[in-house]
Amino acid sequence: MRSIIKEKNLNSKKILLRLDLNVPLENGKISDTTRIDKILPTLNFLIQQKTKVIIISHVGRPKGKKVKELSLKPIGEDLRKKLNVRVKLITENIYDIKNKNYLEKFDEEILILENIRFYAEEEKNDHRFAKHLASLGDLYVNDAFSCSHRAHASIHQISKYLPSFSGLQLDLEVAALNKIITKITKPITCIIGGSKISSKIDIIKNLIPKFDNIIIVGGMANNFIEYFGNNIGKSIKEKNCYQIIKEIISLSEKNECKIIYPDDVLVSKNLNGTSKNKELDQILSDEMILDIGPKTINKIIHIINNSKTILWNGPAGYFENPNFANGSIEIAKKIIENNKSNKIFSVVGGGDTVSLLNSLKFTDNFNFVSTAGGAFLEYLEGKKLPGITALN
Asked: Domain 4-169 falls in which CATH fold?
């Protein structure tokens, strides 16, 4: 993997820079700028080298259609303020930009191509689309580690048509994760959340032989609670997961890896409600599970105290409502406490988890924090990421 920081003679080169600027937008305003802040060093470096930066990124899932609410315009404005340079959003259809000479007419230091996922060809990893994208620059730089597990045109195929490099943030992510893999000390615990088991089934199955404990929290824990004969009311759950959970339990028993799910929960009748602590056999049909309860928190704290390495991906509850943030907060506090006394090596990944830690100003208290979710876990389990292999 060649890093752009080692490349000479970048002056006046047009750099196609793939970033992950998929930040949360609320009414056109950015509610968490973590992903933007992390790539500022790469942008500053390229600006200092007198390059013309052409950013490729996405927001949300427009599914190949133009969606006004998913424009990169607010992101361009945020970059302009933070970098104190001129930034222009190119709203023209990419196919109408015939070659890189078209971009000569813009004086701005940074150009941003509109949301790349407005084009269905992006997620199809279409080679013609990738080749056309490549025609707009001299060099390609991937600084989107969190997207690198996707075989998409602007991450994978594009590297076939241009000299390709890694960016500064991607270098940091890979170096840190490589360090984590080589330094892992047992007992190892993974705390994993999210709403879909099916999207993480392979990850969980691959982690089971390597880990001592896998703690299931968040929406996917509801499927486990239901699997063991409890009513989960109107809680979020994924359908047709009985066989998946059965497989996870069987595999964990063979590998002596403990699977932990909540013993008690906090419920409410709606997302904006107040919390009520319930045992698993007390949940009513009009209630939804939105956080872990005090007994479960104590159980997780005990496991953290007996672990040497912690990987955490996914909050424990619906933390957007403070009434259901306590589980995640207590997990964070205990990891930080053990981290400060050097009892534990801690790694956190995933956009939602990082957003929570940012809101609490806890981010600096972990050994490594990654905004990547799926890419973070897949790299740790040893999978080859398309975006990384494309650079090798």
From this structure: Rossmann fold (3.40.50)
Give per-10-residue mean pLDDT for the chain (392 aa). Answer: 93 96 90 90 96 97 94 97 96 92 90 98 98 97 96 98 96 86 84 80 84 94 95 92 92 96 97 96 96 98 96 92 95 95 89 84 85 83 91 89
Strand partners, 292: 265
The pairing of strands 139-142 and 14-18 is: parallel
Q: At CB < 8 A and 24+ separation, what contacts does 227-232 make?
A: 228/261, 228/280, 230/280, 230/281, 230/283, 231/281, 231/283, 231/284, 231/285, 232/283, 232/289
Name the 3-class secondary structure at 183. helix
pLDDT, residue 203, reads: 80
Beta strands per DSSP E along 6-156: 14-18, 25-26, 29-30, 52-56, 87-90, 110-113, 139-142
The residues pairing with 17 across neighbouring beta strands, listed in sequence order, are 55, 141
Residue 31: predicted pLDDT: 86
**pTM over 0.85, yes/no:** no
Comparing CA positions, the residue from 211, 243, 250, 210 lying closest to residue 227 is 243
HSE-up of residue 385 (Cα within 13 Å, Cβ side):
26
Two tokens at 372? 């990547």
CATH fold for the domain made of 176-380: Rossmann fold (3.40.50)
Equal CATH topology for 4-169 and 176-380: yes
- 298 sits in which H/E element: helix 294-305
Alpha-carbon distance of 68 to 169, in angstroms, equals 29
pLDDT of residue 32: 84
- List residues bridging with 90 in a β-sheet: 113
Largest CA distance in the chain: 67
Q: How many Å apart are CA 16 and CA 158, to the nearest integer?
A: 10
Alpha-carbon span 149 to 263, nearest angstrom = 34
Domain boundaries, the chain: 4-169, 176-380
The DSSP-derived string for 59-92 is -S--TTS--GGG-SHHHHHHHHHHHTS-EEEE-S
